[in-house]
Amino acid sequence: MAEAAFAKTFLSTLDARPIKLSADHVEDPKYYPARPPYILPRMAKPMSKPKNLAPGQERSVTVALKSLRNPPLDIKLTSQPLNTSLLDIKTKVSSQTRIPVDKMKILHNKRPLTDSKILKDVLGETDMSVEFSIMVIGGAAAIETSSPASRQPTGAAAAETDAFWADLKGFLMQRLNDQATAEEFSRLFRASWESHKSGP
């Protein structure tokens, strides 16, 4: 009987207490359930620590550029800083080939790159060189630099120079994508022109 009386008294005491916790209730952290610590997994490649390099000690790379089609290009730019933009690369190629900057597209792994990208965006942490492909839009040929002192012949006189027929053959090769056919057409055109000149 004593146990039953104790149980009734205990239950009545519990009924008198509020069911919900008050708004200002604070739980004692000592009574929190124990939880195992959460450990982050290791990174596959540890992050590199920032380095403060003195001027002139920054890593420089070699940039190789090759064209996919005509005109054939094989250019190597050495000691290029990592913050060099692809627009700067185009400008340097244009200064050597006289191809307009807006006629060039730079590709890396067959994917075109925007002019705003820099070499650091393309290279890995330890790469010392990179190879790009250059696509010349519309097959734009190199622009010849003309000097005021030496004027190029025009009209029929231009056909008397070997440079004219070399340019014609280059144009045919670019349009036909076949060297043998381009050479044959160039030879036929020249023979026809020579025959026309010697005619009555």
From TrEMBL:
Lineage of source species: Eukaryota, Fungi, Dikarya, Ascomycota, Pezizomycotina
Biological-process GO terms, alphabetical: post-translational protein targeting to endoplasmic reticulum membrane
Record-linked InterPro entries: Get5_C, Get5_N, Ubiquitin-like_dom, Ubiquitin-like_domsf, UBL4A-like
Subcellular location: Cytoplasm, Cytosol
Start and end residues of each Ubiquitin-like domain: 61-139
Entry keywords, A to Z: Cytoplasm
Organism: Ophiocordyceps sinensis
CDD domains documented for this protein: Ubl_ubiquitin_like (cd17039)
PANTHER family (alphabetical): UBIQUITIN-LIKE PROTEIN 4A (PTHR46555:SF1)
Gene Ontology annotations for the cellular component aspect, listed alphabetically: cytosol
Transmembrane feature ranges: none
Protein name: Ubiquitin-like domain-containing protein
